[in-house]
């Protein structure tokens, strides 16, 4: 596979500025910003309209549902590919240097679950999965079913990527692709739990094959946008006519949808691209706060009334109001000392590591792949910038490795002197699942 040697991506966003860090590829932030907008638009159109429109305008709600459903093969698959891409370095680093990639989203899931459970136990109009007791909450910690499933998935996918990073990546991705294509048959009634199973392949692909993501992004720039869009619609409509399982339809269409998303992100220019990129570095507060705001909005009149034109435009108005409001609320919560709502406190990682380590010691369970990190190996032309193990002369002796350059998408780290002390990390104001060293 061709080594494109792209400029290294930063593994952590700038949490205090809208300026991108040096070396961060602009289209990554643009794509993440577009994805989070599509998430909010999806919820505004399929939840609020469903409840608020009168019966005679049911066709508007159905039309929006069809459009939003048709965007499923782009929206979250693209987001997870990019999340895996920026975690590519962490899956290969020692646990103490990478543990924030797991504890960060796990902490955010734990922190936000109780207030959202309480909020939606009071607000019962907005459609969505609600936890109704302690048993439901405990089950959700094991397999997320609420709107916070994305945070849960980031933590689980990171552990999965670390578990398989030493294996040949093609068979791994083939197996995960089959899991995604057949996820319809997973025994669950919750769409969010289905999503946890379905989207694993995208994160792992970004984490294990960042060179492939960069290659696709580079080559798709030369493909006419209309050709990609036509191929996307052909897959979506054709597979629907073929009555294939929903998961198969979603997965096959995503093979065109993700490149289409990358193509659109790279085509964006000027002020729109700058705004999307700025939002792409601020996805976390939008993600965790937009649904409660939509839950409040569902009890208000539609912003443009209940005419057909007003109903068609209502999701865009909700989008334009809700997204800036989430960012303002984020600033306010930080000013009130709510940093811990958006960041993993520095003391949490070592404390949780000690707790987990004690349990492993008592059980005798070995998880050396997790604690010590995976062997840093790469085939020629593999992960751009990844430390390469030479097989020349067989496998006798220790592999020669170098950390110079790092993995594309990861900060350059040195093992000189070990990794004494865990880096203090923070996701304050940044992307969902990304970390910043304080």
UniProtKB/TrEMBL annotation:
Name of one Pfam family that matches = Acyl_transf_3
Q: Where are the transmembrane segments?
A: 74-91, 103-122, 142-160, 172-188, 194-213, 225-246, 309-327, 333-352
GO terms under cellular component:
plasma membrane
Where is this chain compositionally biased, Basic and acidic residues type?
9-20
* Keyword Metal-binding tagged: no
Which PANTHER family does UniProt cross-reference here?
Answer: INNER MEMBRANE PROTEIN YCFT, O-ACETYLTRANSFERASE WECH
According to UniProt, the name of this protein is: Acyltransferase
Instruction: State the organism named in the record.
Output: Nocardioides bruguierae
Traced from the root, the source organism's taxonomic lineage reads: Bacteria, Bacillati, Actinomycetota, Actinomycetes, Propionibacteriales
């Amino acid at each position: 596979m061709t080594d494109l040697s792209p400029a290294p991506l930063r593994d952590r966003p700038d949490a205090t500025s809208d300026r991108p860090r040096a070396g961060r590829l602009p289209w990554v932030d643009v794509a993440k910003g577009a994805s989070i907008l599509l998430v909010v638009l999806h919820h505004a159109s399929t939840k609020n309209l469903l409840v608020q429109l009168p019966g005679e305008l049911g066709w508007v709600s159905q039309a929006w549902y069809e459009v939003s459903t048709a965007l499923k093969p782009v929206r979250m698959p693209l987001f997870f590919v990019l999340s895996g891409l920026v975690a590519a370095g962490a899956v290969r680093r020692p646990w103490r240097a990478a543990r924030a990639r797991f504890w960060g989203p796990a902490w955010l899931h734990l922190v936000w679950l109780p207030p959202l459970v309480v909020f939606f136990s009071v607000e019962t109009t907005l459609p969505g999965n609600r936890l109704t007791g302690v048993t439901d909450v405990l089950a959700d910690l094991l397999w997320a079913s609420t709107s916070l499933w994305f945070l849960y998935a980031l933590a689980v996918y990171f552990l999965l990527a670390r578990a398989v990073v030493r294996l040949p990546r093609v068979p791994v991705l083939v197996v995960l692709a089959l899991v995604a294509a057949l996820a319809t048959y997973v025994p669950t009634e919750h769409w969010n739990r289905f999503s946890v199973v379905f989207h694993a392949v995208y994160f792992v692909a970004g984490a294990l094959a960042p060179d492939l993501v960069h290659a696709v992004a580079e080559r798709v720039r030369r493909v006419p946008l209309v050709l990609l869009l036509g191929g996307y619609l052909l897959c979506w409509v054709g597979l629907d006519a073929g009555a294939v399982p929903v998961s198969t339809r979603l997965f096959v269409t995503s093979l065109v949808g993700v490149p289409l998303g990358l193509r659109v992100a790279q085509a964006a220019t000027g002020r729109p691209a700058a705004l999307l990129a700025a939002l792409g570095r601020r996805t976390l507060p939008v993600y965790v706060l937009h649904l409660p705001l939509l839950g409040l909005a569902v009890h208000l009149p539609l912003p443009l009334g209940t005419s057909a034109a007003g109903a068609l435009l209502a999701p865009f108005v909700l989008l334009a109001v809700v997204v800036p409001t989430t960012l303002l609320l984020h600033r306010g919560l930080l000013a009130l000392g709510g940093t811990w709502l958006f960041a993993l406190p520095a003391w949490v990682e070592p404390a949780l590591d000690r707790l987990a380590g004690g349990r492993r010691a008592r059980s005798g369970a070995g998880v050396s792949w997790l604690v010590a990190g995976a062997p840093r190996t790469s085939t020629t032309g593999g992960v751009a910038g990844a430390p390469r193990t030479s097989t020349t002369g067989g496998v006798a002796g220790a592999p020669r490795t170098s950390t110079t350059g790092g993995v594309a998408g990861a900060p350059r780290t040195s093992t000189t002197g070990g990794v004494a002390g865990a880096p203090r990390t923070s996701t304050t104001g940044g992307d969902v699942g990304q970390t910043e060293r304080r």
